[in-house]
Fold this protein.
Amino acid sequence: MKVKTFRGRSVQQAISRIKSEIGPEAVIMSTKRVPENRTNPYGAQVFEVTASVPESNDYGDAGGRVFPEPKTEKNDSLSMRKNFNEYIEDIDTDEKGRGNNPDEIYKEILSIKDILFTLQSKGGLPEYIFKYPGASSVYAKLIENGISSELSKKIILKSYSKEKKSESSPGSLRKRVFIDMINMIDTYDPFEINDSAVAAAFIGPTGVGKTTTIAKVAADLTINQGKKVGLVSVDNYRIGALEQLKTYSTILGIPCMPAFDKSELEKALSRMRSKDVILIDTAGLSSFDEEKIKELKDIFDPSIPVSTHLVLSLTSSLENLNEASKNFSELTPSSYIFTKLDETLKKGAVLDQLDYMKLPVSYVTNGQRVPEDFEKASGKNILKKIFTEK
C-alpha cells in the first residue's frame, strides 16, 4: 500500500478526486488545511487530504516519490465493529458512570466509504472536525450509528476540551468520547425498593409495545426475582387490550384487573395491596392528542401513588421521539423504556433522546419474545447495542 496527497478548495472536492482516481477502497490517513502557495502562508488556503492506495495501484506523490505502506489495521465493518465492542468491554464504570480504560485503544482509520457516508448525510462533514486529531473517524462512526450531527459535534467538542493538548491523540479522544457517552446514560430500577407495594404505569404512543413490555417485566419480576406481581389495565380504547394482558397473566399465574377511571384504579390498587409490584397498562395515545393525555393524567391523580414510565420505540424518528417525550412529560415519567431495538439498524437516537430530555433508562427491549427479549438498562449495554449490534 502506498500514499498519495490530494488537494481541493473543499474537503468534498479533494475526496471527489480521490474517489475518481483511486476508488472507494482508498483510506483517508490525514486531512489538514494548508496555504495554496507554500511560499505565502497568508494567502488562500486549500484542504490537503492524504490517502493510502491499494497495492494493485502504483501511486506516488506529485514528485514521483513512493511512500512506504502505513502499518494500520484493516478497516472493514467487521473489524471496526470488533474494535468498538472490545473497547466498550474494557471500560469499567463506577456508580456515577465514570469510566477508565487502562489499555491503549486500537488505532482506527477512517475509510473513504465512511467519509462518503457522512458527506451524504444531513450536514455533511463539518470543517471544524479537522482541527482535532482523530475526530473525523469518531464523527463518522457516531453519525453512522444514528447519532445526530448536532449531538456528535457536542460530544466531540466536550471530550476534546478535557484532553491535554500536549497528550492528545486519536486514541485518547476516542476513549474520552466513550466515557462521556456512558456518563450521558443514567439508569434506574423502579422496583429495587420493596418497602411497600410499588405501582408503575407504562405510558407512551400507540404501537410502541407497552403491553408486551409489561409482560416481560412481569415475567422477570415473578420468575427471576420471586416478587408477587399484579396487573391492571386502564386501556379502554384498544379492542382486545384487556384480553391480551389477561392471557399473559394466566400464563404467569398472576391476577389481572380492569380499571377504566380513577375510582376503579383506586379499588384495584387496594385489592392488590398485598402484592410487591403492580404493573399498569395504559392505552397508546397519539402524542399530539392533548385531550386524551389529560384524561390519562386525571386517572393518575397525585393522591394515587403510581409512578409512570415512558415507553418509546426506536423505530420512530428523532423528531417524533422528542415530541412524544415533551407531550407525555405532563404525566411526569420517572424513566424511559426503549423498545424495538431489533427493528432498526441505527440505535444512536437513544443518546439524542437522553440529551433532549434527561431521564434515566430502566429497560430496553429487542424483540417480541416474552420474557427473553428484554434487559435492565446499563450504560455499557446500551453503548454495545448502539455500536456493535446490527
Observations:
- Confidence is low (pLDDT under 50) at residues 57-82, 92-110.
